[in-house]
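User: Bacterial cell division membrane protein, Gaiella occulta:
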Amino acid sequence: MTLRPRTADASDLGAALRRLDWLLLLAVFVLVGYGLWAISGITRFDVAGDPGYFVRRQAIAAALGLAGMVAAVVVPVDLYRRHWRAVYGATIGVMVFVFAVAEAVRGSKRWIDLGPFQFQPSEFGKLFFVLAIAGFLVGRGTRIGGLRTVMSAIGLGAGPMLLVFLQPDLGTALVYGAALGAVLFVSGVRWVHLSMLAVSGVLLVASVLWLLPAAGVEVLKPYQTARLTGFTNPDSDPGGLTYNVTQSITSVGAGGLSGRGVEGASQTRLDYLPEHATDFVFASFGEQRGFLGTSILLLLYLLVVWRGLRVITVAGDLYGAVVAGGIVFAFLFQVFVNVGMTMGIAPVTGIPLPFVTVGGSSMVANLLAVGVLQAIHARGRLAGAR
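Assistant: Predicted structure for Bacterial cell division membrane protein:
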């Protein structure tokens, strides 16, 4: 009697795997490869005597992420819904653990050292945050549109967001906020409640930037305030306050149509552009590969977003649709802000560019998120075929 369920489960798993979104999978594989190629040129002169140092590390992270993506496809998505409290608790616990054991790097506590690698829990928290909040909302049933449910979801979301903000990591906290808004929207929260949330967000930003500092309460770190001030007044101090953005815009423009190549990209090669493999990686790539190279990258992102939105429509249940919506919008938000800040149309917040920015945690976390999307798609198509 024990063989039947196992045989049925194996059959269901095989059928689900045959219903993966292969176009999404192909787009992600090409993105990973394209990102590795980009990093190989951007970081070629960063480590003397070892031009492949960063690209090797990024490739290892990609391999780990692909293994995690396979595991995420196999795990039933409904498992996260049933155990959303454990997912939420683990997310909070790991972030608190960061404050206890992480060493401060440039005034921030974000990374846990794991031998030769660094683990950034807040990157994985983006996915777990969506899984947990979506589980809470879907579990409310018919009460999902009520004001009490909305406020409870915001309260749950505020915990991880505050912990990330205190690291301090303003950019990642903003990604959490964008994911929370997307989860509430897809779950069917009333427009009036979403409007109230938007107004509250505007008031919060105004308080942090102007009202509280005017009263003598500084919420942001000085460098965070400088970044936001520089965004609102980009010509105020091109040699100091807005130096990074000025060099970034120069790099993007210098790339022209086809780029200056690895050797000719002086902004990147000679380190005129700071953080050219992390915060401003898009600007470096633009200088080296030009409009054509960056257009291909943006089209690949567009393909991933399109297929991700399609996952929402084929999800077999509300939970899958809500999770897919949160993942896709958070992904889109990261791309928009990172690309925008390199051209001066968004503030510099340190948000990584998915699949391109050097960073193992970001690479693995994004591939895990793709695995969850694939699991939702496959099981949704399987349910629809029955």
